[in-house]
Amino acid sequence: MKNLISVVGPTGIGKTRLAIDLAQYFNTEIISCDSRQFFKEMKIGTASPSEEELAEAPHHFIGNLSVEEYYSIGQYEEDALQKLTELFKDHDTVILVGGSMMYEKAVIEGLNDLPEADNENQEKLQAIMDQEGIEKLQAILKELDPEYFEVVDIHNHRRLLRAIDVIWQTGKKYSEHIAVSQDSRDFNVIRIGIEAPREELYDRINRRVDIMMEKGLLDEVKGLEKFKGLTALNTVGYAELFKYFDGEWDLDFAVSEIKKNSRRYAKRQLTWYRKADDIHYVQLGYSHQDFENLLQWINDSFRNK
């Protein structure tokens, strides 16, 4: 039986480093399930692995698409499983890493057979959004499915439309649909999380945004201005700076909003992961000994599966 180690945790907690350390130990490759890092034009604002990090272990699904390409979670599930099958020919263990909760779920469990989008519902919801704003969609979803509302990216209108559409079509909460895992996978899955005191995590997130600005995030976003209507760019770090370029916000305020929205996203991720009982945690800033203990735990787990 082959093994998949999935490294999870909130944004900014150091998943990339741990994934590389594990990949080097197991002499294997890394599959990313960070849906924002798929886009090659968005390196800085998504904290994509650096050239040095990419050289430390082979990575897949990093910068493999252009923001102009539409890429669904269903396509990702198919592509990632195909890549896993390929990698398992040469490796007993592969590493999965990323904080996009639904994308990780797609790989380790499979997405449920949800109904196709209903055009009538979509048009109706689009009209509501055009007339009353995204806040109205947020309110509808919160009422219909408070559990999913807790973890969804509430600024991504496509996710809101999709969830409400499915609820209207099936009469069942979206969170119930996605809670049932589909066909079991033919590989073992071990989930490793990194945890830190919330204050420390928030400090890291704030600091990381400052570093992104130093690395040239402003220029990166400026170069993508013509694509600002695309879904890929309706995301933290980009949406806020477009408002600066539009003259709506000043730069300091835009940067503070990036920090605030990144912290909010981390909070949603923590809510999601807290519901799982199968994540083995290591502390942020783990020592050499902690890493040895983790490896021991992983190897024992593989033997017991």
Description:
- By secondary structure, the protein is an alpha/beta fold.
- The protein folds into 2 domains: 2-112 and 183-208 and 276-304, Rossmann fold; 119-179, Orthogonal Bundle (Histone, subunit A).
- It has helices at 15-25, 51-56, 73-90, 101-108, 119-132, 134-144, 146-151, 157-170, 174-179, 198-215, 217-222, 239-245, 251-274, 288-304; strands spanning 2-8, 30-32, 59-60, 93-97, 187-195, 279-283.
- A 6-stranded parallel beta sheet has the order 3-2-4-1-5-6, with helices on both faces.
- α2 (51-56) links the parallel β2 and β3.
- α10 packs across α13 and α12 runs antiparallel to α13 (251-274).
- The protein is globular and about 55 Å long.
- The mean pLDDT is 93.
Descriptors:
14 helices, six-stranded parallel β-sheet, 10% strand, 2 domains, 305 residues, 6 strands, Histone, subunit A, alpha/beta, Rossmann fold
In short:
The protein has 305 residues and is of the alpha/beta class.
Number of helices: 14
User: Architecture of the largest domain in CATH?
Assistant: 3-Layer(aba) Sandwich
CATH topology of the largest domain: Rossmann fold
Query: What is the mean predicted local confidence, pLDDT?
Result: 93
CATH homology-level superfamily of the largest domain: P-loop containing nucleotide triphosphate hydrolases
CATH class of the largest domain: Alpha Beta
Strand content: 5-15%
Backbone CA Rg:
20 Å
> How many strands?
6
Helix content: 40-55%
Please give the domain count.
2
User: What structural class is derived from the secondary structure elements?
Assistant: alpha/beta
